[in-house]
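Write out the 3D structure for:
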Amino acid sequence: MPRAQQRKQDHRDILILHSVVASTLAISRHKQGHLEELFTPDHQDLDNDEGNERLTRFLRGTATGLHALSLMISVPSSRGPYTQWRKCNEFFDVSLSWPDRDFRHKYRVSRTTFDHLVRILEENPIFKSMGRKPQRPVRYQLACFLLRYGTRGGDSLQAAHKLGIGFGTVFLYCKRVVRALREIGMQVVTWGDETRQNEMTRRVLDQSGIPDCIGMLDGSLIRLTEMPDRNGLTFICRKKFPALSSTMRNDSPQSS
């Protein structure tokens, strides 16, 4: 459910809850007046049956209001109670044995690249458990990140189902991987030193005749699930959906 819709639902629930509480308190105050009358000198002449009947009506009315209040509080919301569902923990282990073409289709990277990323990320202390409960291996957390962000729209529930983890755990794993990638980003994504640039310049000149070129630039749109809450319209791209624009330079020999 989008955040704006969720907030509206929460506001409606709060207003309904406030009205139920106010009604219950009003009924209690009204009934309390009748109850106090049972113990005033003017009503001492009431027989036991009539007094018991009034007391019963008072308690029944108060109980009805409190029951309505309890139902309101216990109504399942969109978040619902925390329930466990049957999980499958075999998907990732089985996928490690897939051919490279199938592995790349699911995780958007080759198996060689995946293993290389795992070795790099394992050195980051963010993947070291600080408590008694150990973390899952880095390869699981990286797979979670790739399953979520490798799918258009960022399907978090798909990652949870395939890896047999909780929905909230998906965000935890992705947060760790994103932080680790950002820390090593400036070491990996660079313009290259002077030797690298001269090599690329000669290669481009030999194959295309274009002088003084140190790389090939291209752009790509990264589609977002929904518009951000702040300045959301500024994220609408030329294709009429919210997205981020990325620009990359490729100086790999394979790109020539």
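The radius of gyration is 32 Å.
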